[in-house]
Specification:
The protein has 755 residues and is α/β, with parallel strands linked by helices. The protein is built from 21 helices and 27 strands. Strand 2 and strand 3 form a beta hairpin. The protein is globular. The structure holds beta-D-glucopyranose.
């Protein structure tokens, strides 16, 4: 009988023409009608099943439950009570589970398979914050494409990326996952990533659903402490937090994930205001809202819901369509419907969204679309992906300082010492969120030097202490007590011509749950740095990190600093390419580097105070024991060549402000520059930041060559949102700045007058 029903259902869908519509977004009427018919055939429990997501705590080919599997009933798959899973991957596993559901559940509705393919899958690309430093949208899109291709080949059809949370606080470990502090750059990168994951056509088995997360405000956790309270005003919400989400939604993102935090005193997962009003009503988002891991059940700890039944009705009514890891919908939602706390219409709306994604991907036509073992073999760690990873890593690096012409390295005839445990480490460069990658599979810096036939002497200085990669304790990463390796490191530094030191954070010291109160070089690294510098000042510091660090001493003393971030699988090769000048660094900071962690939050697009100073007397907005300036400002980054900007021109053409500037490569090598355009609204009914990024262009120039760069700025970009989210475009004077960072000095002004 089940078989008969499935045949009827299939015919329904087939004849309705739904199979031709999978690639389109938003979907056409006939698919919506096919969903209507499917909804009519479903029981309440089956509908709620589509809203229920389970984690892969088991071996599906077994099934042999692993730790955690006691939380759900395995039979739920056969009963059609599960709509999607996360962390089930690999073609064999995915096919086995899909088959179980498609063949044995009453309606055979295929599952979605979700996974955090954040910056790569088997091949690991640079951490997202590093990629943001490239300001290179086509490259970022290519990188997401690699993640999608490998994940899709392994059975995954839904990634929980990109994270588009803006953050101004480097203590927050998850800054490594985002695009930094600026909403304009963040919005552009969000779109590039969504395009990279989803492509243009969901009929392709290489395209997967993307997720803009975490909606909303998660990056503003107080004190940078993960999961902490968020208390921001409506202006920050509309002008800073929401723009990347809005861009992702307009860019066709298939899903949005709730955040863990409260917003206006309400957990985001139950926020009618955020999800129903802004996302679904105002923005007309048609995809799925998935909760974050247990963000439903956490409403109890927030002091908002008393029990899981309440969690279920609050989240469902707020428009959170899928429950990840709270077990609230599967166990309590039908009862809440029966009690009248949640309407059937609400359930149907959520289920429709889930089914829509399944139609869009073509899973009703072919539930095993992502289950091709040949594809899995061919695309996992495809050599072209390594090329993309190496290229992306080079584009992501930021040259922070280069004195004494230490870089590019001229290694011939020079004695080189390499110091730092991280230079030999093959795990740290993968960064956090690299769940599908093989541990310790990155090319270390030493291996990069070997491959380039660079001779060197090596000393770790201070050792790494192995930690548990899942429940990693940050103090374990870099030794804090054992100084036994220091003498040897100092001895090889003393006799070297150049010392390359690779220092910074271990790759697992940033990411979820890894907030840090101090943004120093962890462990004894600062001590080694100073001791080495004392015997040999010709130090090139390769800084590896998942977040901005307060490296003020290094910035003052060390002549050359290359910020490599956590560059991914090809780390050592990419760093070597940059150190040798085979690639001229072109990255620019997507986040301000503070002088001290006590300056946080620090960001370039702040408001002016009433006492901006500087003044001779004490009564102006500053610190008496530290500068209030950043160490390196947003947008900053050097090159092995030099660029100069001149002749800034501005013209108004209809609703567009046309800004032109002349850019010249005044150095002696080819280089790329990210020209940045900032505005400042002098006076407005709600005060505006001292500078706001409104355009950027990355261009390559041969030495001695000049070019004209043109920015075409729609006047709407001169506007801003008020506290109700209405765009205000007010007449008045605007300052325009163009240059190589947010501290650009070349400026002109523009009077905007409404027609
Ligand atoms: C994270 C999400 C992630 C989810 C599933 C949560 O802890 O906050 O970003 O997608 O886990 O792995």
């Amino acid at each position: 009988m089940f078989l008969f029903q499935r045949i009827v259902l299939f015919l329904f869908l087939y004849l309705s023409g739904a199979q031709y519509l999978f690639a389109q977004w938003p979907l056409s009427d006939s698919t919506e009608r096919a969903i209507d018919r499917l909804l009519a055939a479903m029981t309440l429990e089956e509908k709620i099943g589509q809203m229920n997501q389970y984690n892969g705590f088991w071996d599906v080919t077994g099934p042999a439950p692993k730790a955690g599997a006691d939380k759900f009933k395995y039979d739920h798959f056969k009963q059609g009570l599960v709509g999607s899973v996360l962390n089930v991957r690999g073609v064999t596993q995915v096919r086995a589970l899909q088959e179980l559901v498609v063949k044995q559940s009453r309606l055979g509705i295929p599952l979605l398979f979700g996974f955090d393919a954040v910056h790569g899958y088997n091949t690991v690309l640079p951490i997202p914050l590093a990629e943001a430093a490239s300001w290179d949208l086509p490259a970022i899109e290519r990188s997401a494409r690699v993640s999608a291709t490998e994940a899709a080949a392994s059975g995954i059809n839904w990634t929980f990326a990109p994270m588009v949370d803006i953050s101004r606080d480097a203590r927050w470990g998850r800054v490594m996952e985002g695009a930094g502090e600026d909403p304009f750059l963040g919005a552009k990168i969000a779109v590039a990533r969504v395009k990279g994951f989803q492509g243009n056509d969901f009929s392709s088995p290489f395209n997967i659903l993307a997720t803009a997360k975490h909606f909303a405000g998660y990056g503003f956790a107080e004190g940078g402490r993960d999961y902490n309270t968020v208390d921001v005003n409506a202006l920050t919400l509309h002008n800073t937090i929401l723009p990347p989400f809005y861009a992702a939604v307009n860019g066709g993102v298939a899903s949005v994930m709730n955040s863990f935090n409260i917003f206006n005193g309400v957990p985001a997962t139950a926020s009618h205001f955020l999800v129903q009003d802004i996302l679904k009503r105002n923005w007309k988002f048609k995809g799925v809202v998935v909760s974050d891991w247990g963000s439903g059940i956490e409403m109890i700890d927030h002091g908002f819901a008393e029990n899981l039944s309440q969690v279920a009705s609050l989240a469902a009514n707020a428009g959170s369509d899928v429950d990840m890891e709270s077990y609230a919908y599967v166990n309590h939602l039908s009862e809440e419907v029966r009690k009248g706390n949640v309407s059937i219409a609400t359930i149907d709306q959520s289920v429709r969204r889930v089914l829509r994604l399944k139609f869009m991907l073509g899973l009703f036509k072919d539930p095993y679309k992502y289950c091709d073992s040949t594809r899995e073999r061919v695309y996992s760690m495809h050599p072209e992906h390594s090329q993309v990873a190496r290229d992306m890593a080079k584009r992501s690096m930021v040259l922070l300082k280069n004195e004494k012409q230490l870089l590019p390295l001229v290694e011939k005839g020079k004695k080189i010492a390499v110091i730092g445990a991280l230079a030999a480490d093959k795990n740290s460069p993968l960064g956090n969120w690299r769940l599908a990658a093989k541990d310790s599979s990155a090319v270390s810096l030493l291996e990069g030097f070997d491959a380039a036939s660079i001779s060197y002497q090596y000393a770790p200085g201070v050792k790494l202490v192995a930690g548990d990669p899942v429940h990693f304790v940050q103090e374990l990463a870099i030794n804090t007590t054992d100084t036994s390796g220091m003498a040897y490191a100092i001895s090889i530094a003393r006799t070297a011509d150049i010392v390359v030191m690779m220092l910074g954070e271990h790759g697992l010291q940033s990411g979820e749950g890894r907030s840090r109160a101090q943004l120093n070089l962890p462990g004894l690294q600062q001590q080694v740095l100073e001791a080495v510098y004392a015997v040999n000042p010709n130090v090139v510091l390769v800084l590896t990190t998942g977040r901005p660090l307060a490296i003020t001493w290094a910035a003052e003393h060390i002549p050359a600093i290359l910020l490599a971030w956590q560059p991914g699988s090809q780390s050592g090769h990419a760093i070597t390419d940059v150190l040798l000048g085979k690639y001229n660094p072109s990255g620019k900071l997507p986040m301000t580097f503070p002088r001290s962690d006590s300056q946080l939050p620090i960001y370039y697009n702040h408001f002016s105070t009433g006492r901006p100073g500087p003044k001779k007397e004490v009564f102006w907005s500053h610190y008496i024991d530290e500068s209030h300036a950043p160490l390196y400002e947003f947008g900053f980054g050097k090159s092995y060549t030099h660029f100069s900007y001149s002749d800034l021109q501005l013209a108004s053409r209809g609703d567009t402000v046309v800004v032109q500037v002349n850019l010249t490569n005044t150095g002696s090598v080819v280089g790329e520059e990210v020209a940045q355009l900032y505005i400042h609204d002098r006076f407005s009914s709600i005060v505006r930041p001292i500078r706001e990024l409104k355009g950027f262009k990355k261009v390559q120039l041969a030495p001695g060559v000049s070019t004209t760069i043109t920015f075409e700025l729609p006047v709407s970009l001169l506007g801003y949102y008020n506290e109700t989210g209405t765009l205000l475009l007010e007449p008045g004077w605007f300052d325009f700045y163009v240059g190589g960072s947010s501290a650009a000095t070349l400026s002109t002004s523009f009077l905007y007058s409404k027609k």
